[in-house]
Design brief:
Length: about 550
């Protein structure tokens, strides 16, 4: 069983080579490779999750080099759950992107690059979840960074290039900080392996431990978009294509949360920075949701709710009890699916209504009842309406806060309740503006051409005479544009609004909703699993013994 541990990383990397080799020459085969590999990764993730739950942590030392020399990959209950949820979500997003690409007839180079970049992103995420040492964790982050920049800037439009540049600058800064933390850790302990660090860090002076802990937390807080290190997110994510924004918002920020969970439990037990984490959690929840209240663009609104709800997870990490960790893990799994779903729905709204600007939308509950249902379910889940999984996660965290009984814990419980109510207000505002009220006079009708950002498709259209270079390019072949949609297509070019949404995009969105609802239906086994996961994280011994053989 241990031999299966590297496969969630290796399979996407090998498939990337095949995908690049075929390119656009065999587009169908390229799509088949991507879907088949992500399906296999999802199946492997389920197997690893079940095996880790029944047998304990699984590990493999690549090249048979023992720590600290070799690369160690470890799959325990936490990484198994994260792998399973993330691989299932990335598969759904891939199907959504295939539907969007086929509908828009994007067959040029950027779409051919999308599949390899997406597979590399999946490999980087899997590497991060399975990493058994700080160096390999850093490698996973860098793999994600390279793929993320390609995906953010697909099509090369002005808004996407600007957003991608911001994202890369912030990511490079966090990478430099991460390298500094790794160097300090290795200089102090002589290793970067998690299991060995769990033993050796405790022997260092308390000041050195706290400095290393603070550096690592800062790095992971940037990745997770925790306030006040989240200012880059609302400007970076909304300009990307809908499937890219969905997987970034739903998954990549949770990689940072996962790293915080892993290091705070395995490397730095004792919760020395618990008060600081709880203060940051409260600030993230309150300021993030107030930012969402002020937005009128759906994608920016969802970006601010993302920052806000990261605070719930940091709340559990800062509280550092078994119940709190269990609630935080439930909320991470829930939020991956719900946030991804909402951004996928935002892409459908843009395709149906011609924009994500709420002041220009309306009447969709009558005009597109299926789209209204696809939004309503995850929106209520995000707000924590019983008995959905969002309510289960929030209830677990609040119960842990009440059980703790400390001053900060009670403040966080009150902050969590207020944030949940404001989240309900925010999604109700979206519902009222986009779906419930009558359509405003300026809303784009079906068949309207949307131009992407500051680019135009005129040069790619030969015009009525079918000949390039005659001066009539882009004239008379399509209706005039009603506005701009910076994330309209994968390629970043024009898209025509439609009253009938593409079936693959709808099916993929419905599948992510089904995953979120499955957390509700199987709430008892899920909470039992996360409770066992929390207990394993606090014990630490099973992880250390598996890796070091003690």
């Amino acid at each position: 069983m241990n031999a299966l541990v590297p496969l969630p990383v290796l399979l996407p990397l090998c498939a990337t080579g095949l995908s690049l080799a075929f390119g656009t020459r065999l587009g169908r085969f390229q799509r088949f490779i991507s879907v088949a590999v992500l399906t296999a990764v999802t199946a492997l993730s389920v197997i690893l999750m079940v095996a880790a739950d029944r047998q304990g942590p699984l590990s493999v030392h690549l090249g048979d080099f023992a720590p600290p020399l070799g690369i160690t990959l470890v799959a325990d209950r936490l990484s198994g759950l994260m792998l399973t949820v993330s691989s299932a979500v990335t598969l759904c997003v891939l199907v959504y992107s295939l539907g969007q690409g086929m509908t828009d007839r994007d067959k040029e180079t950027p779409l051919a690059v999308f599949h390899p970049a997406y597979l590399i992103l999946v490999a980087g995420v899997s590497c991060t979840f399975l990493a058994g040492d700080l160096v390999n964790l850093y490698v996973g982050f860098e793999i994600m960074l390279v793929a993320s920049f390609v995906l953010l800037t697909l099509g090369g439009t002005g808004p996407r290039m600007r957003a991608g540049s911001t994202y890369v600058i912030i990511s490079l800064f966090s990478s430099m900080l991460f390298l500094t933390a790794i160097a300090m850790t290795y200089a102090a302990t002589g290793t970067a392996n998690f299991a060995q660090l769990a033993v050796r860090l405790a022997e260092l002076p308390i000041g050195v431990q706290t400095l290393i802990q603070a550096l690592l937390l800062t790095v992971f807080a940037i990745k997770a978009a925790v306030f006040p290190l989240a200012a880059w997110l609302p400007d970076s994510y909304p300009t990307a294509p809908a499937p890219v924004t969905a997987v970034f918002a739903g998954l990549l920020t949770k990689v940072g949360v996962y790293c915080m969970l892993r290091t705070e439990t395995l490397l730095f037990p004792g919760n020395r920075l618990g008060v600081l984490l709880m203060a940051i959690a409260l600030a993230s929840m309150v300021i993030g949701i107030l930012g969402a209240v002020a937005q009128t663009d759906l994608k920016r609104l969802l970006s601010f709710t993302l920052i806000s709800h990261i605070g719930y997870m940091v709340f559990g990490i800062g509280l550092a009890t078994r119940e709190a960790y269990g609630g935080a893990i439930v909320y991470v799994a829930h939020h991956i699916t719900v946030q991804t779903t909402l951004f996928l729905v935002a892409g459908l709204i843009e395709r149906r209504g011609g924009t994500t600007e709420l002041t220009r939308l309306g009447g969709m509950a009558r005009a597109a009842p299926m789209l209204a249902a696809l939004f309503f379910v995850p929106a209520m889940n995000l707000a924590g309406i019983p008995p959905l999984s969002g309510f289960i996660g929030k209830l677990g965290l609040m119960r842990a806060g009440v059980a703790d009984g400390g001053g900060w814990a009670w403040v966080l419980v009150a902050g969590s309740a207020a944030t949940s109510l404001l989240t309900l207000y925010v999604v109700a505002k979206v519902w009222n503006l986009a779906f419930w009220r009558a359509a405003p006079p300026g809303q784009a009708a079906a068949g309207t051409v949307l131009e992407a950002g500051d680019d135009s498709d005129a040069d790619s259209d030969p015009g009525p005479d079918g000949v390039f270079g005659t001066g009539d390019e882009g004239i008379g072949t399509t209706p005039p544009p009603a506005g701009q949609a910076s994330a309209a297509t994968l390629h970043g070019r024009a898209v025509i609004t439609t009253s009938r949404l593409p079936h693959p995009m709808v099916a993929a969105t419905a599948a992510t909703i089904a995953i979120g609802l499955a957390f509700t239906v199987f709430a008892d086994p899920l909470t039992a699993y996360t409770d066992r996961t929390a207990a394993e994280l606090l014990q630490r011994a099973p992880y250390i013994q598996e890796v070091l053989g003690r």
